[in-house]
């Protein structure tokens, strides 16, 4: 699946708070992709009032995305007001996102995180992540699954990306 | 580039964070990020520049873990 999100769509900030970040084309492409959503997914947003240039836009972006499907919801947290939640999810950078499976007992953490606004390329990654978590299956091959299932120590992956 | 996230989904021992490099210059400098994507494993124990296929990322994780 490939979603062509024009980065300028996300950059059209500050000009008018009322306009959508996603244009109609992108909204319809994402809605189309979301017909494949299966189980509910919760996006946990972590923001901060201190020096967070992209917090407002990131929250707006995930709220717009979540509005396209009733299987998606957003829960917002603040680093200063909810430090124990942030620590629980190992989130230290803002804006921070956790893509969690939603269950009757609350969100189930799969260890899927974003630091910074998922625009440009990362926008498609976010949509793919939502679909994967919704399907509750990583889609990895058998050898990989077997190795990861037997891991005895924590593995922390950080993938550095840029918007374009 | 969701491979790291797929791995996180597969095991409670794995966490994967996608970091927008330009928003966090200190962190990017700490790991000497010159090009993207760049995958950093266990705080710098291993580092792989460019898009990596599943088998290659797995091999690198195998190298830095004791399994």
Provide a brief overview of the structure:
The complex is a heterodimer of chains A (164) and B (67). Chain A is α+β, with helices and mostly antiparallel strands. Chain A has six helices and six strands.
Number of strands of chain B: 3
Specify the biggest β-sheet of chain A.
5 strands, mixed
What would you say the CATH architecture of chain A is? 3-Layer(aba) Sandwich
CATH topology of chain B: Glutaredoxin
Sequence stretches where pLDDT stays below 50 over 5 or more residues of chain A = 11-16
Q: Averaged pLDDT of chain A, please?
A: 91
The total domain count of chain B is 1
Q: What is the subunit arrangement here?
A: heterodimer
Structure summary, number of beta strands of chain A: 6
The main pleated sheet of chain B reads as: 2 strands, antiparallel
The SS-based structural class of chain A is alpha+beta
Protein described:
- The complex is a heterodimer of chains A (164) and B (67).
- Helices cover 34% and strands 22% of the residues of chain A.
- Chain A has 164 residues and is of the alpha+beta class.
- Chain A has a single domain (7-149), classed as Glutaredoxin (3-Layer(aba) Sandwich), CATH 3.40.30.
- In chain A, strands 1, 2, 3, 4 and 5 form a 5-stranded mixed sheet that branches.
- In chain A, strand 3 and strand 4 (106-108) form a beta hairpin.
- The two termini of chain A are 18 Å apart.
- Chain B is globular.
- The mean pLDDT of chain B is 95.
- Helix content of chain B is 37%, strand content 22%.
- Chain B starts with a helix and ends with a helix.
- Chain B contains 3 helices and 3 strands; from the N terminus they run αβαββα.
- Chain B has helices at 3-10, 25-30, 54-64; strands at residues 14-20, 38-41, 46-49.
- Chain B has one domain (3-64): Glutaredoxin (3-Layer(aba) Sandwich).
- At the A-B interface, strand 5, helix 5, helix 6 and strand 6 of A face helix 1, strand 1, strand 2 and helix 3 of B.
- Strand 5 of chain A pairs parallel with strand 1 of chain B, so a sheet runs across the interface.
């Amino acid at each position: 699946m490939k979603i062509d999100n024009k980065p300028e769509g996300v950059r059209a900030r500050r000009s008018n708070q009322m306009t959508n970040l996603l244009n109609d084309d992108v909204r319809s492409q994402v809605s189309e992709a979301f017909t494949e959503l299966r189980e509910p997914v919760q996006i946990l947003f972590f923001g901060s009032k201190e020096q967070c240039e992209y917090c407002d836009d990131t929250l707006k972006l995930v709220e717009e995305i979540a509005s396209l499907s009733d299987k998606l919801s957003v829960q917002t947290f603040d680093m200063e007001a909810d430090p124990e939640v942030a620590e629980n999810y190992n989130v230290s950078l803002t804006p921070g996102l956790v893509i969690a499976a939603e269950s009757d007992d609350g969100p189930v953490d799969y260890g899927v995180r974003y630091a910074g606004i998922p625009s440009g390329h990362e926008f498609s990654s976010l949509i793919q992540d939502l679909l994967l978590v919704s399907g509750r299956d990583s889609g990895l091959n058998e050898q990989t699954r077997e190795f990861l299932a037997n891991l005895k120590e924590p593995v922390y992956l950080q993938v550095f990306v840029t918007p374009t | 580039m969701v491979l790291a996230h797929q791995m996180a989904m597969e095991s409670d021992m794995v966490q994967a964070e996608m970091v927008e490099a330009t928003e966090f210059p200190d962190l990017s400098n700490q790991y000497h990020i010159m090009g993207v994507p760049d995958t950093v494993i266990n705080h710098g124990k291993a580092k792989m520049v460019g898009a990596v296929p599943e088998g290659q990322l797995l091999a690198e994780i195998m190298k830095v873990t004791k399994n």
